[in-house]
Design brief:
Layout lengths: L5 E2 H10 L4 H4 L13 H13 L4 E5 L5 H9 L4 E5 L13 E3 L6 E8 L9 E4 L5 E6 L6 E6 L3 H6 L8 E3 L2 H11 L2 E9 L1 E2 L11 E4 L2 E3 L8 E3 L2 E2 H8 L2 E4 H7 L10 H5 L1 H17 L9 E6 L9
Parallel strand pairs: 2-3, 2-5, 3-4, 5-10, 11-15
Antiparallel strand pairs: 1-7, 6-7, 6-9, 7-8, 10-17, 12-13, 12-14, 16-17
Helix pairs in contact: 3-4, 6-7
Bound molecules: S-adenosylmethionine.
Keywords: Methyltransferase, Transferase
Protein name: SAM-dependent methyltransferase
GO molecular function: protein-arginine omega-N symmetric methyltransferase activity
Amino acid sequence: MSNRPLPWRLAWQQALYGPDGFFRRSRPADHFRTSVHVGMFAEAVAELARSTSAASVVDVGAGGGELLAALRDHLPGVHLAGVELAPRPAELPEDIDWMPALPERVDGLLIANEWLDNVPCDVVELDPAGVVREVLVDAATGEETLGPEHRNPWLDQWWPLTEPGQRAEVGTTRDLAWADAVRRVDGTAVAIDYGHRAGDRPPFGSLRSYRDGREVEVRPDGSCDVTADVAVDAVADAAGGTLLRQRDALARLGIDGSRPPIGLAHTDPAAYLRALGRAGEAGELGARGGLGDFWWIVSDTRGHGRLDA
Ligand SMILES: C[S@@+](CC[C@H](N)C(=O)[O-])C[C@H]1O[C@@H](n2cnc3c(N)ncnc32)[C@H](O)[C@@H]1O
């Protein structure tokens, strides 16, 4: 690994997606839990697909294919495909397609859970003289230095820095990635991620790393995930989408977190336990301070959509 400091975007790209990159070698599920690992999430996505008469569901950044495998039971006859840089999981049912890049057209539903936060971006910092500078990083040590001036109208519009030491993750790469995905869709596209809007940006940025289920020191050396929250308002603007919190999206899709009546425990204990399990999953997916705070960026390219208020 070179010790030359690189702009964060390049170091991050190499760390996750280079020949020996983190996501080429390891399954996301081995390192963190996402909504796709909670059973009721597939029910919500299936309801969205059914209600929009989707002929196909394409999962971008499909990880280990967990969502697609779960959808298969809910959506007989619907074509399912994963877009993923990592190899096809050996256990994935044969009738689910697996491809390294987005198809030119998607007829139905495009879904991307926790993809955009892993799309690398430039990291910038306002220096003591009031100049926005690119942050460079030594991939091996994580040591940072300030590089050349970074001018970008995106920052002026979406994330202006006002105090020396403040940092931003420049969202242009995420905006472009999602707009490029949405333009291929005849139907509905949903990107789901943690993020912020103007007014609640993290003043010093949100770069983080995870490995084996724990947050670790941020380091673009391929040994851990590198992620940063998504400027969701900018992405929605670039792709022509609307924003809602996951808990509200799930409610509109009929996912109910209320506990079953205690009387059921006496008349049908097995049904009671099943219903209790489902309520627990719905609660996890909608939790405040947790997955429920995630943003759904929704674009309906046919006009009115199922998730409209
Ligand atoms: C955080 S994981 C999310 C996995 C899964 N969607 C989930 O929710 O558990 C992000 C995934 O996106 C994949 N990915 C990132 N950029 C990609 C690209 N341009 N094309 C295909 N897959 C990509 C990574 O390989 C990784 O598996």
